[in-house]
């Protein structure tokens, strides 16, 4: 059995953003500045809270990040939707890493709970998705629970993240 790569540098992640990692028409990450990951530190087909796979990533924060100047003038904070997008990005990447085909699209999320914020003083954000189910039939769908930590403290959780892969007809 071939061992898949289990971590990725920023340069390697950019190959996914350019559509080079999983091939044309298959999952790809957005390009910066919408790319919300600097490193994928761990990806595995097993483990995680539900024992059905997980992915972990990191994002370095500095006061110059583009969103601080345009979200709440005078009260800079990273928009929660960008953290949610990072979790969706990771879910789509995971499906491509599994070798599944189609263009990734975020479908939905269940319950989201905010418990903190990411500010220009934050140094690093960690993201995690623990998969509950991956459907690999006619419908390709990843379902998982995610979390976001700012300097080690959980700032929000998202239940039932759903990303599907769709092939052009």
TrEMBL record:
Keywords: Cytoplasm, Fatty acid biosynthesis, Fatty acid metabolism, Isomerase, Lipid biosynthesis, Lipid metabolism, Lyase
Gene Ontology biological process terms in this record: fatty acid biosynthetic process
One GO CC annotation: cytoplasm
Pathway participation: Lipid metabolism; fatty acid biosynthesis
SUPFAM superfamilies, sorted: Thioesterase/thiol ester dehydrase-isomerase (SSF54637)
Compartments reported by the entry: Cytoplasm
Alphabetical list of NCBIfam families matching this protein: fabA, PRK05174.1
Family designation: Belongs to the thioester dehydratase family. FabA subfamily.
Protein name: 3-hydroxyacyl-[acyl-carrier-protein] dehydratase FabA
């Amino acid at each position: 059995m071939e061992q898949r790569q289990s971590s990725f540098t920023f340069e390697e992640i950019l190959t996914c953003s350019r559509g080079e990692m999983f091939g044309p028409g298959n999952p790809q990450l957005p390009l910066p500045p919408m790319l919300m990951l600097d490193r994928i530190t761990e990806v595995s087909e097993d483990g995680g809270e539900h024992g059905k796979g997980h992915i972990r990533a990191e994002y370095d924060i500095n006061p110059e990040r583009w969103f601080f100047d345009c979200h709440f003038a005078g009260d800079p904070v990273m928009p929660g939707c960008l953290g949610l997008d990072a979790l969706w990005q990771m879910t789509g990447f995971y499906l491509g890493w599994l070798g599944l085909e189609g263009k990734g699209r975020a479908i939905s999320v269940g319950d989201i709970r905010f418990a903190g914020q990411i500010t220009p003083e934050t140094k690093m954000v960690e993201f995690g998705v623990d998969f509950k189910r991956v459907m690999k039939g006619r419908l390709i769908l990843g379902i998982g629970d995610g979390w976001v930590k700012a300097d080690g403290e959980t700032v929000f959780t998202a239940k039932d993240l759903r990303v599907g892969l769709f092939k052009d007809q």
